[in-house]
Amino acid sequence: MKKIESIEWLSRISIILSILLSSFGIYIIIKDVEILEGIVYIFLAFSISIDNWIKLFKNKKKS
Q1: What is the SS3 assignment for the chain?
Q2: What is the largest CA-CA distance in the chain?
Q3: I need a surface site. Which of 26, 45, 60, 63 has the fewest CB within 10 A?
Q4: Cα(2)–Cα(52) distance, integer angstroms
Q5: Per residue in 3-53, pLDDT tens?
């Protein structure tokens, strides 16, 4: 049971981290006009938790 709980926590943490990184990337683009750096943060957020987002939306469709 502990392994399943830790996997769920890691999934939640990676989703939260991806939201924070993408919002920080948008902030950098808007505030500092550093488009390339902002795109890097957004791409990093996308690559960190794409699998978790897919699993989250698949579970929402089934419910």
Answers
A1: CHHHHHHHHHHHHHHHHHHHHHHHHHHHHHHCCCHHHHHHHHHHHHHHHHHHHHHHHHHHHHC
A2: 47
A3: 63
A4: 19
A5: 677 778 888 888 899 999 999 999 999 998 899 999 999 999 999 888 888
Q: 34: Cβ–Cβ under 8 A, 6 or more apart, which residues?
A: 28
The number of beta carbons lying within 10 Å of the beta carbon of residue 2 is: 6
Buried b (16+ CB within 10 A) or exposed e, 4-33: eeeeeeebeebbeebeebbeebeebbeeee
Tokens of 53: 């987002």
Structure tokens at 15: 């989703």
